[in-house]
Amino acid sequence: MRRFITIVGLLGLLAGVAVSGVQAKGVSPAGLQRAGWSCVNPAFAFPANPNVHCFPPGHLDGVIAGTAATALLLAFATSDVIAEEAPLLGTERMIRADLFHDQPCPTDPPGGPPGAASGPPLYQWSYLGPRFGWDYYICHTFDSPW
Question: Which structural domain range is residue 81 located in?
Fold first, then answer.
C-alpha cells in the first residue's frame, strides 16, 4: 500500500510539472514526437474521443505489452497527431488493472450520459479493456467524453 501511495503521489507531482511545463513552453504533439514520445488518436476505437494522446518514450509500448505499471499521458484538443500547435486538455493517468484497487479519480468522469455532463464528477476510473484491449484503468484531469 505504501508503494502504491508513493506511485500515486509521484504521478500527481509529475502531472502538475508536465502540465505547467507544456503550457509554458507551448509543447505540441509534433514537438513531443520529435523528442521521442508516441502520439495517437484513439478515435478508431472510440469515435467520441478524437483528441490526440501522447505517451512519454517507451510508455505506449509498455501499455500495449501490459508491462507498464502506470503511465502518464498528455491529451491535446486536436485530431492531428502531427499538429505543431494544439491546446493542451490535461493529463491522463493510467494504472494496470492488477494494481487498481478502486481508488477514486478526483476529476472524472462527469455524471450523466457520455458527452452530456449533467452532474458532478463520479470520481471513477474508466476501464480501457473494452475499447482498446488494454488491461488498464484511466483517470482524466479534464472533462473527457467518458
Answer: 2-140
Q: CA of 117: how far to CAs of 44, 82, 87, 102, 112, in Å?
A: 23, 30, 21, 22, 5
What pLDDT does 37 receive? Answer: 97
**Scanning the structure block, which residue is given the C-alpha cell 474521443?**
49
Q: Is residue 146 part of a domain?
A: no
What is the C-alpha separation between 80 and 57, in angstroms, rounded? 19
Least confident of 75-79, 88-92, 119-123: 119-123
Task: Considering only residues 103 and 15, tell me which one the structure prediction assigns the higher pLDDT.
Answer: 103
> Considering its fold, how many domains does the chain have in total?
1
In a domain, 65, yes or no: yes
Q: Which residues are within 8 A (CB) of 12 and not within 5 positions of it... i.e. 6 or more apart? A: none
